[in-house]
């Protein structure tokens, strides 16, 4: 276990948004953090990526507090894709992805063939090689998101954190992107940690699921253990049935909604 | 070229070459334009100096009339124009790209005005003069920058721009108040800090600015790699190991460049503001600090030529010309710039 939080509290003002959370991120697996809006899941991810200094407690990377390590050294191990990043005007795809090489280049070191190879690999993994000379602002939302993932991949880190990577993508592109990240764990053994909104996609792609509520961890474990009708109600305030996904066998949340609520209200639960 | 046999590394190398070629072309073109304008500024105008005479004078020969005009007016004005233009251009482009806002140039955020206000204060209240005023100007610019940065906090460009624009408005009021308190002689001296001008260009000033640029510009070149990452926003930059401390360092370098240029020429309107966007349009929409530096110098020398000879019987300060043409030119650029992408 290389990345962990030890009773960490995070926030922007006096009141912590994340309240004394301890967790361990399993190596080589995909961990997904879910929770209702404002539960602190993005804040927790930002804290783990050292974008936020903890109010108390610490985030530990490879046995040392992440905030006590040189940020450049951390950047060689830990990559991050923030929520909806904005590319500078006019930048080309290769140029943007190439900037992911920053932590691997010395102050006076020139661009090397190894950098070319790393960028090429990142573009291939994200199927964006054919976009190499295009301008990022002119790409579609799905292509752009892939390019940002490529930039994080060019950084060649063992751990990769992503904050809602599927926002603004249509459902087909969401699946594409999650497949891509899943493939990464297979081919490179990358430890992936991401925040996702869609509970069903989270249950399908996560090896390890963390459900947050009110700045604390409500449940962690395998999706099948975490996603139950009771928990969906307590964490998301959503009345739902949980059935088995006919394709993957993972839990599938089917919201009930006001108009389909039976009069007797029998809390049905499948699988 | 078949789809199957593409070598990915070669594709990357090829795609990287396109913007690089454009950058070299832009720098070369601007360099040539600057050389041409410099020659025009030095040789042409009301008093024409022939090329043979130019070299004879530089070689130490005394030609009545020509020597004085070249060595005391034309040449120092042109050289100071180039140096101050480079400094303004670099400072503006660093501010705009690091804060990711085309409005955020040091002249818009009150940095230049901070230098002016401090120098005018030194003249009117402290009765200082000479190089002490330059020191006061630089201290004023740095102080203004530090205060803006502290009030705005570390999180991002928007607050900084807001605080900076507010500071600029406040500083204008301070300068105007001080101006009303000044006696005639002091007011004359203070005026030099309120309009940008190359009219009083002198070799000692040039020497100071030159030495400062020789020290500061390599530092800028050295940190430019982190500037390219800071452009991606604070979150991505931190993730790539470049913290906002680098941004502060880079902005401090830009503040010093701007302050030194203001100390040498006064706050020449709009040069720092327009240099970055013009260079950007030429460079296919991409930021180029070197391009912005050269555009700054081209604008300064070109505008000074117009200021000196464009209007009969008057020798305008260069800031009047850059101010008058800068704003409409920028509007035109914004309106037409998108068409020139790539």
TrEMBL record, chain A:
Q: Report the locations given in the UniProt record.
A: Cell membrane
Pfam families, per this entry? ABC_tran
Membrane listed as a keyword: yes
Q: ABC transporter domain: which residues?
A: 3-239
Which Gene3D superfamilies does UniProt cross-reference here? P-loop containing nucleotide triphosphate hydrolases
SMART domains linked to this entry: AAA (SM00382)
The membrane-topology field of this record reads: Peripheral membrane protein
- From what superkingdom does this record's organism come? Bacteria
Please, one GO biological process term? iron ion transport
Gene Ontology molecular-function annotations: ATP binding; ATP hydrolysis activity
Tell me the keywords, alphabetical order: ATP-binding, Cell membrane, Ion transport, Iron, Iron transport, Membrane, Nucleotide-binding, Transport
**GO CC term, one of those recorded:** plasma membrane
Entries under PANTHER family matching the protein: IRON(3+)-HYDROXAMATE IMPORT ATP-BINDING PROTEIN FHUC
- The protein in question is named ABC transporter
From TrEMBL, chain B:
Q: Which UniProt keywords apply?
A: Cell membrane, Membrane, Transmembrane, Transmembrane helix, Transport
The answer on whether this UniProt entry bears the keyword ATP-binding reads: no
What GO terms are given for molecular function? transmembrane transporter activity
Keyword Repressor assigned:
no
Topology with regard to the membrane?
Multi-pass membrane protein
Transmembrane region(s): 24-42, 78-96, 108-126, 133-152, 158-180, 201-224, 249-275, 287-310, 316-335
Question: Which InterPro entries does the record match to this protein?
Answer: ABC_BtuC-like, ABC_transptr_permease_BtuC
**Top-level taxonomic group:** Bacteria
According to its UniProt record, where is this protein mainly located? membrane
User: Among the entry's GO cellular component annotations, what is one?
Assistant: plasma membrane
SUPFAM superfamilies from the xrefs?
Answer: ABC transporter involved in vitamin B12 uptake, BtuC
One Pfam family recorded for the sequence = FecCD
Q: Where in the cell is it found?
A: Cell membrane
Query: Belongs to which family?
Result: Belongs to the binding-protein-dependent transport system permease family. FecCD subfamily.
Tell me what this protein is called.
Enterobactin ABC transporter permease
Q: Which organism is it from?
A: Nocardioides luteus
């Amino acid at each position: 276990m290389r990345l962990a939080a030890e009773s960490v509290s995070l926030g922007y003002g006096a009141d912590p948004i994340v309240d004394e959370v301890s967790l361990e991120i399993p190596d080589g697996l995909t961990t997904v953090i879910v929770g209702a809006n404002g539960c602190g899941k993005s804040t927790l991810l930002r804290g783990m990526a050292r974008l936020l200094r903890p109010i108390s407690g610490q985030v530990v990377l490879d046995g040392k507090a992440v905030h006590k390590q040189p940020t450049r050294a951390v950047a060689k191990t830990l990559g991050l894709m923030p929520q909806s990043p904005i590319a500078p005007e006019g930048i080309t795809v290769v140029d943007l992805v190439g900037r992911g090489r920053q932590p691997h280049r010395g102050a006076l070191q020139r661009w090397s063939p190894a950098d070319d190879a790393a960028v090429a690999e990142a573009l291939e993994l994200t199927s964006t090689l054919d976009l190499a000379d295009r301008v990022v602002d002119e790409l579609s939302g799905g292509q752009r998101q892939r390019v940002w993932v490529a930039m994080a991949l060019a950084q060649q880190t063992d751990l990769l954190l992503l904050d809602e990577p599927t926002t603004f993508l249509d459902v087909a592109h969401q699946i594409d992107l999650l497949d891509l990240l899943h493939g990464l764990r297979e081919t490179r053994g990358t430890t992936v940690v991401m925040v996702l909104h869609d509970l069903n996609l989270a249950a399908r792609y996560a090896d390890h699921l963390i459900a947050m509520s009110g700045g604390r961890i409500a449940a962690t474990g395998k999706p099948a253990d975490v996603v139950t009708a009771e928990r969906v109600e307590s964490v998301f305030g959503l009345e739902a049935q949980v059935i088995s996904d006919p394709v993957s066998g993972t839990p599938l949340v089917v919201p009930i909604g006001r108009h389909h609520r039976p009069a007797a209200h029998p809390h049905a639960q499948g699988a | 070229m078949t789809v199957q046999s593409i070598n990915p590394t070669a594709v990357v190398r090829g795609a990287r070459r396109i913007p690089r070629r454009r950058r070299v072309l832009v720098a070369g073109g601007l360099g040539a334009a600057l050389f041409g304008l410099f020659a025009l500024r030095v040789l042409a105008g009301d008093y024409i100096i022939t090329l043979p005479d130019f070299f004879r004078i530089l070689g130490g020969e005394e030609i009545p009339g020509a020597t004085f005009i070249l060595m005391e007016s034309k040449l120092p004005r042109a050289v100071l124009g180039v140096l101050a233009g480079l400094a303004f251009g670099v400072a503006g482009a660093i501010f705009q790209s690091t804060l990711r806002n085309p409005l955020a140039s040091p002249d818009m955020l009150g940095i230049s005005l901070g230098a002016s206000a401090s120098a005018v204060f030194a003249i009117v209240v402290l009765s200082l003069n000479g190089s002490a005023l330059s020191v006061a100007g630089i201290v004023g610019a740095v102080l203004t920058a530090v205060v803006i940065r502290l009030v705005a906090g570390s999180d991002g460009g928007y607050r900084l721009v807001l605080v900076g624009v507010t500071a600029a408005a406040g500083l204008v009021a301070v300068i105007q108040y001080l101006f009303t308190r000044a006696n005639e002689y002091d007011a004359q001296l203070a005026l030099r800090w309120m309009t940008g001008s190359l009219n009083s260009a002198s070799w000692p000033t040039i020497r100071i600015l030159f030495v400062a640029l020789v020290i500061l510009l390599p530092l800028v070149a050295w940190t430019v790699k982190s500037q390219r990452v800071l452009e991606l926003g604070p979150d991505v930059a931190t993730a790539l190991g470049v913290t906002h401390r680098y941004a502060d360092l880079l902005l401090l370098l830009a503040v010093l460049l701007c302050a030194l240029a203001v100390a040498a020429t006064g706050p020449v309107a709009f040069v720092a503001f327009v240099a970055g966007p013009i260079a950007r349009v030429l460079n296919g929409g991409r930021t180029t600090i070197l391009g912005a530096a050269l555009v700054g110098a081209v604008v300064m020398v070109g505008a000074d030529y117009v200021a000196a000879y464009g209007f009969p019987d008057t020798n305008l300060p260069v800031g009047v010309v850059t101010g008058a043409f800068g704003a409409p030119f920028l509007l035109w650029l914004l309106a037409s710039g998108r068409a020139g992408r790539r």
